[in-house]
Amino acid sequence: MEDTEAVDLAADWADISQGLRKDLGHQLFTQWIKPIQLGKMCKETGTLELFLPTEFSANWVQDRYHDRLSLAWKIARGEVRQVKIAVHPGRRKIADFDLGGTRRGHDGFGHRAANDSTMAMESIGDDGFTASVGLDPSQTFAAFVTGSTNVLAKNAAERMSKAEKPQFSPLYLKAATGQGKTHLLHAIGHSYLQTHPRARIFYCSAERFMVEFVQALKSNEMIEFKARLRGFDLLLVDDIQFIIGKASAQEELLYTIDALLAEGKRLVFAADRAPQALDGVEPRLLSRLSMGLVADIQPADIELRRQILESKLTRFAPLEVPADVIEFLARTINRNVRELVGGLNKLIAYAQLTGQEVSLQLAEEQLTDILSANRKRITIDEIQRTVCQFYRIDRAEMSSKRRARAVVRPRQVAMYLAKVLTPRSYPEIGRKFGGRDHSTVIHAVRLIEDLRQRDADMDGDVRSLLRQLES
């Protein structure tokens, strides 16, 4: 496949993936759509190949998402007439080994496990003891960037994974999509395995819990299901909000929580809302979920977003990403951390595949969808009002002809922010500042940019104003 065609396909897949993430939700997208790899596009037949790592996942996606994927690709690329979903040809089949009654390649419930992020064997002890988990090796405490918005959850998660008995259980992590709660779940599992190498750990989504429950119910294997589930030392359940309204599954989860807590075992749950906001969940289960510690993860502020981007850059060395690009991404992609890192990955991948240098212009061109979804509609009026409050001057000074330094400098800062935070042109900005010429605005923008480099106080003022306007 030519490089240009690969880039085009990758760009279309990025757009399609973003739409599917919104439609399906994070859990389903991550479990079934994210592992898809692009194959070849046959122009003669109009067939596009999509590969998944295992036969199980390929069959699942074929049965449930083939029509949606086909339609999305036909809309994105007119030459695509059909989509073929298959197992990646380079994927080796994992053999089954008997390990003390638990076979490698099977999940903790005894079912055949798909080799994806939710079903995998993590460690095997010297005596053949196995810990059945589905942990992402990249999501550790060392890779988690801590800031003021997530420090409580990070510290609580670390405490839960220590050798000594935690002061609270269960731990309930509450955060909006893409803010790091799933990362902390995986990190707890990795850290706990280091201190308890013989431990049985199980990570699953609430949705998977319900699927396994229904399967056991239909096959008359409830006794085995309960025994396996309650045999774990650490239970990690993600997206607990998806258990809403499932009375029988809720009851089983309630009994499981009681049984594990009675034996001093550890439980961690994660959701996008607080326990009290889980409508359709029976009161007894709500009581169990909130009886330990509820740790809230707030959206990452701009300082944390900068730190996260800087931490990710080490993976791409020696590729250089200019400081203004990092600042632009951190300031603009503010909805969640996942989109922030995804935007950086997409930008760098495009630059590497096309041989272009990473620049601010390239970021604006290639991340249009992500940037437009994240941009808060900040007006020049709002900027003027905020700047006047910050510098304690009258709003009328933004349009006045006064040239006193105490007035001119705040006015120039407001012009700079108007150019940075709004799509307005120089002439449009000038008209909002008392009908000033566009050359005056250009001078103000360049002056403040230069002062930010040389004057720490000015840079601090601008950063503070940016935080206020973007919050």
UniProtKB/TrEMBL annotation:
Subcellular location: Cytoplasm
Role played: Plays an essential role in the initiation and regulation of chromosomal replication. ATP-DnaA binds to the origin of replication (oriC) to initiate formation of the DNA replication initiation complex once per cell cycle. Binds the DnaA box (a 9 base pair repeat at the origin) and separates the double-stranded (ds)DNA. Forms a right-handed helical filament on oriC DNA; dsDNA binds to the exterior of the filament while single-stranded (ss)DNA is stabiized in the filament's interior.
Pfam families, per the entry: Bac_DnaA (PF00308), Bac_DnaA_C (PF08299), DnaA_N (PF11638)
Main location: cytoplasm
Record's subunit section: Oligomerizes as a right-handed, spiral filament on DNA at oriC.
GO molecular function terms noted in the UniProt entry: ATP binding; DNA replication origin binding; lipid binding
This protein's encoding gene: dnaA
UniProt remark on domains: Domain I is involved in oligomerization and binding regulators, domain II is flexibile and of varying length in different bacteria, domain III forms the AAA+ region, while domain IV binds dsDNA.
Similarity-based family: Belongs to the DnaA family.
Name of the protein in its database record: Chromosomal replication initiator protein DnaA
Organism expressing this protein natively: Aurantiacibacter luteus
Domain Chromosomal replication initiator DnaA C-terminal: 379-448
InterPro entries noted in UniProt: AAA+_ATPase (IPR003593), Chromosome_initiator_DnaA (IPR001957), Chromosome_initiator_DnaA-like (IPR020591), Chromosome_initiator_DnaA_CS (IPR018312), DnaA_C (IPR013159), DnaA_dom (IPR013317), DnaA_N_dom (IPR024633), DnaA_N_sf (IPR038454)
UniProt-listed PROSITE patterns: DNAA (PS01008)
Keywords of the record: ATP-binding, Cytoplasm, DNA replication, DNA-binding, Lipid-binding, Nucleotide-binding
Residues bound to ATP: G178, G180, K181, T182
Sequence ranges assigned to domain AAA+ ATPase in this UniProt record: 167-314
CC terms in the record's Gene Ontology section: cytoplasm; plasma membrane
Residue ranges, annotated region (Domain I, interacts with DnaA modulators): 1-96
